[in-house]
């Protein structure tokens, strides 16, 4: 059965509630989509800012202590990093010369060096989650040019966005459902004069000299219609 045919069988109150709910659903969806995209981009920009600030702090610390001394094992000299941050110093070929202690509890992270002399921000899979790494060229005293790698996991951002998606979806559904119920009640209340006019018109079938009611508490189009019929 065509949708238009189904809608034509519904009462005016239900149709008004449905159209109101549909309009609100479209508006809320557009607003929530824009809000979600804005929050998503903002969180990733904050993550990039944190990476660059942490990299700057590590560079300042290493240069203040005369650069990174060479070592045969990544664990012989631990880099200090903020909680949730993974820092490594890499040689020209990507070999690990130093690493922060946080790497000990994580799977191996292959290095993906950019072009020499450039910095880059990369998003990649690390174990069962995704991570973002910032690569910066770093001069290590008399040693060849090496790389500073600062990495943060994106799982905290993804958890926040996942929770935000659920709350926004529930907010949309709850808001539209409540709006439809309230809209239906308001439509029924607004159409009470129509029911009064219909009842009075049926009584006039047996008593043609009767009149339609015109006192609805407010002078509106229905009042004008009733007075026009009474004038006939």
Outline the structure in words:
This protein has 232 residues and is an alpha+beta fold. It has a domain at 65-153. It has helices spanning 3-8, 12-64, 155-190, 192-206, 221-231, and strands at residues 85-90, 96-99, 120-126, 129-138, 146-153. A five-stranded antiparallel sheet has the order 2-1-5-4-3. The longest helix is centred in the first third of the chain and has 53 residues, at 12-64. It starts with a helix and ends with a helix. The model is unreliable at 69-77 (pLDDT under 50).
Summary of the model, kept short:
By secondary structure, the protein is of the alpha+beta class. It has helices at residues 3-8, 12-64, 155-190, 192-206, 221-231; strands spanning 85-90, 96-99, 120-126, 129-138, 146-153.
Give the secondary structure arrangement, pairings included:
Blueprint lengths: L2 H6 L3 H53 L20 E6 L5 E4 L20 E7 L2 E10 L7 E8 L1 H36 L1 H15 L14 H11 L1
Antiparallel strand pairs: 1-2, 1-5, 3-4, 4-5
